[in-house]
Amino acid sequence: MRAAAHAAWLAIAALVSQPPALAKHSTCPLDRPGIDQLGESETLRASVRQVGKDRVLMLEGGIDAKAPETIANALKTGGAISEIWLRSPGGNAAAGNRAGEVIRGSGIPVRILDGWWCISACNFLFFGGALRTIDPGGVFAVHMATRVNDPNYQNNVDRLTKRGATGSVLEEIAKREQGMAQLTADDIDVMLRMGISRKLLSDVMYAQRADSFRGGRENAANAETYRCLTREEMVRYNVVNID
Predict the structure, then answer these.
(1) What's 57-103 look like in SS3?
(2) Residue 18 forms part of a structural domain
């Protein structure tokens, strides 16, 4: 039973951090250059580039299940890496946590450039840096981890509701709640080990709306489900620890 529950959690974690189209939010500069480049790939791309005298590992695209392996291989074969640069719309939540641990094991600083975005599961890759910096104009966007916006989940609940299968609907919801509780526990564990304030979860991430379709799914694009941290918040919650 424990193995089955763990497998179900992994399946949920693979979806919860996949956000819908980025919702407008008064804190997020959606006109910033670079946001239109976030969705170019559903898999994480790792490339090593020479920047002046330094070798930089660039991690771009969606965070897929193989992201920890992708990063580990790039670090193994990329030579002496001075810095890791991140640009990602997020993706697989559990993989994001594990990828952050791989980055922390390398001891290499991480950075978000001016005009680059780090959203959702990307946050946990960034937490992996022992030294973390975000350039002015770099965007660190968070949201509440949720499964409620997954179309498959919504359709399944709709189907069961129309059948009048109340017990099955409640069972479906309970299963998702358990998975989210396990993921939250993992998020908290990773953040504390990485030196990030737990209050970032309670004060900001989990204070955001999860149900982007509230008031009708046709209004989902107008729901503010994302939150972009201010520079003061980045410092307060120890998201950045060097200027």
Answers:
(1) EEEECCECCCHHHHHHHHHHHCCCCCEEEEEECCECHHHHHHHHHHH
(2) yes
